[in-house]
Design brief:
Blueprint (H helix, E strand, L loop, with lengths): L5 E3 L2 E12 L8 H4 L11 E10 L5 E4 L20 H7 L9 E3 L5 H4 L3 E2 L2 E2 L5 E5 H6 L2 H8 L6 E4 L3 E4 L2 E5 L8 E5 L2 E3 L8 H4 L11 H17 L3 E3 L7 E3 L1
Parallel strand pairs: 4-5, 5-8, 8-9, 13-14
Antiparallel strand pairs: 1-2, 2-3, 3-4, 6-7, 10-11, 11-12, 12-13, 14-15
The structure holds zinc ion (ZN) (2 copies).
Length: 246
């Protein structure tokens, strides 16, 4: 467990480091192309892949994102599979059956693939929270191998909603149509709202794999301005350090 938990608003938030590595050859590009106009180097980007565990004020367990999944997961064409999520959960004292709620920030394969195991839900006692717009947009392998096996356990939301005591989701669309962030007190688990620290200084820097680059940049600027105004703590999916105070 390389990263330390943090206490916030009566809850404890633990980063789970699912993997660290470059993207695979299928979609690997130099950082200068991944973030056009950023001035970043002509080197591959080394990402961390973080999920977050929330033990809320009522003692319930929420998992935000489920990582890259098994050796043969839908993320295997480009992410450093298999993910270490289950070992990270165990190190935090949690078994998959202990998880009450799974929030999927969005349905990209590096965030959602660990939701399933052996063709069924990996978190057998959990409901899975997802925005309607991402459910409407999902196609292909992620639909067949991730969403269909959990379809009876989905809690589909639209916009903003409290999904566990003190845990809220907020639609922050652009990276995907139904991309959402998660709030616990002053902490914001930001999914792929922001991919690289360079986008904190300039939210207008595009990420080549945003579904809608203009919408993503506008959402990034608006949400980050709000979070900055309240001096929020960010919990990011792909930065080397999971926590960062704005
Ligand atoms: Zn990490
Ligand atoms: Zn994504």
């Amino acid at each position: 467990m390389p990263h330390q938990p943090r206490a916030v608003a009566g809850a404890e938030v633990t980063p789970l480091c699912d993997a660290v590595g470059p993207m695979g050859r299928a979609i690997r590009r130099p950082m200068a192309e991944t973030f056009p106009g950023s001035g970043l180097a002509e080197e591959p980007w080394i990402l961390h892949f973080h999920c977050y565990l929330i033990r809320d004020q009522a003692g319930r367990v929420t998992l935000v994102d489920t990582g890259i999944g098994a050796e043969d997961s839908p993320a295997s064409s480009w992410a450093p599979v298999p993910g270490a999520l289950e070992a990270e959960l165990a190190a935090a004292g949690v078994t998959p059956a202990d998880v009450d709620v799974v929030i999927l920030t969005h349905l990209h394969s590096d965030h959602a693939s660990g939701a399933v195991a052996d063709g069924g839900p990996r978190f057998v006692n959990a409901r899975y929270v997802l925005q309607q717009a991402d459910l409407d947009a999902v196609r292909g392998e992620t639909l067949d191998r991730v969403v269909t096996p959990i379809k009876d356990r989905l809690q589909v939301v639209e916009g903003d909603q409290e999904v566990a005591p003190g845990v809220r989701v907020h639609l922050a669309a652009g990276h995907t149509p139904g991309h959402q962030i998660v709030r616990v007190g002053k902490l914001a688990i930001t999914g792929d709202l922001v991919l690289h620290p360079v986008q904190l200084a300039d939210p207008g820097i595009h990420y080549v794999y945003d579904d809608d680059q203009e919408a993503a940049a506008a959402t990034r600027a608006e949400v980050l301005a709000g979070l900055r105004a309240e001096r929020a703590i960010l919990a990011t999916a792909h930065f080397p350090d999971p926590f960062l105070r704005l």
